[in-house]
Design goal:
The protein is globular, with a radius of gyration of 19 Å. The chain contains ten helices and 14 strands. It has a seven-stranded mixed sheet. The chain has a five-stranded mixed sheet with strand order 8-9-10-11-12, with no helix packed on it. It has 318 residues and is of the alpha/beta class. The longest helix has 21 residues. The protein has one domain: Ribonuclease Z/Hydroxyacylglutathione hydrolase-like (Metallo-beta-lactamase, Chain A, 4-Layer Sandwich), CATH 3.60.15. Helix 5 packs antiparallel against helix 6, helix 7 packs antiparallel against helix 8 and helix 9 crosses helix 10.
Length: 318
């Protein structure tokens, strides 16, 4: 769990032209940051929106008043509930257009919209060793969480290389398949691609890209190439040497790969079982889902490396 006290001020200035608001979350991570980037025409670009609210006016009015400038546009970095969840709320309050990555929006429709398939969701977790009692619990939790995801239909779609008021759009996958970031000069508005002191969750999910950890290693290499002065991320503290942090996170995942391989004992082992050896056993159900997805991502990567193989619905050392 990552815990950060929420400032008594609705908005904090981080550096000239970049401000941040922090909202509490009722999740394993107890807060999320949203960013207000000064626009060239005197307004702001708002990046990410927290969870949706039953009373958006009460939630957002102190922040919008503290920003003190019109919201020109709303950019969603990725479809996770604490980032896309309030997009429709803020759009209704500000009349600003929502912008979202093209790939990310397509996945958002499958996760939160009319393309959601609860039977496929349940079958995926069963196939990876989760007991039926936990599968049923996940279905209920996901339905309740979905009520707080107020995504915006038909946003303006962004592609790699697009510009948003002078910020370049890049797709940096791994934490989410279509995750976008904004880059300008030596600043990275990073979403959840890189975090400190925790590491972003890298999980494989139904309908997702086939090897998210390989995607994420490429993202970490790209952050090293960009070598920004600072990364402002969705949780935790600003990262002053993102390239160094990227190398540390890559080493963390290499160590976790070795631990995942060590948990394969000759019989086919499910991702659920491997998660039990990688993470503490008393995780709440929702966090256990992330643990299983992360274990699966590491096992699939090991298969790609030739160090593990699939067998009888599970995995064995190669």
């Amino acid at each position: 769990m990552l815990s950060r006290p929420v400032s008594s001020r609705p908005v904090e200035e981080l550096e000239p032209g970049i401000r941040r608001a922090t909202f509490r979350l009722p999740l394993g991570i107890d807060h999320v940051h949203v960013y207000a980037l000064d626009s060239s025409d005197g307004g702001v670009t708002l990046v990410d929106t927290g969870l949706g609210s039953r009373d958006p006016e009460a939630r957002w009015r102190p922040v919008l008043d503290a920003i003190g400038a019109p919201v020109d546009r709303i950019v969603v970095t990725h479809l996770h509930p604490d980032h896309v969840g309030g997009a429709a709320d803020v759009a209704a309050l500000t009349r600003a257009p929502v912008m979202q990555g093209r790939e990310d929006y397509a996945i958002c429709l499958r996760a939160w919209g009319p393309e959601w398939d609860p039977e496929r969701f349940a079958a995926f977790w069963r196939a990876n060793g989760m007991p039926e009692s936990e599968v049923a619990g996940l279905g209920g939790d996901s339905a309740r969480l979905g009520e707080a995801v107020h995504w915006q239909p038909d946003p303006q779609l962004l592609d790699p290389g697009d510009e948003v008021d002078g910020w370049r759009v890049e797709v940096l996958r791994g934490h989410a398949d279509g995750h976008i970031v904004l880059v300008r000069d030596d600043v990275l508005i990073a979403g959840d691609t890189i975090l400190d002191p925790i590491t972003p969750a890298i999980g494989l999910y139904a309908n997702g890209r086939p090897d998210p950890l390989a995607d994420y290693f490429e993202t970490l290499r790209r952050i090293e190439e960009l070598n920004p002065r600072i990364a402002y991320s969705g949780h935790g503290v600003p990262i002053e040497r993102p390239a160094d942090r990227a190398r540390t996170i890559a080493a963390h995942h290499r160590e976790r790969l070795d631990r995942a391989l060590a948990s394969l004992d000759g019989r086919p082992v499910s991702a659920y079982e491997v998660a039990g050896s990688l993470f503490r056993p008393d995780l709440p159900l929702q966090q256990r889902r992330f643990a299983v997805a992360e274990a699966l991502a590491h096992l699939v990567y090991l298969v790609g490396e030739g160090r593990a193989a699939r067998a009888d619905g599970g995995f064995v050392a190669a």
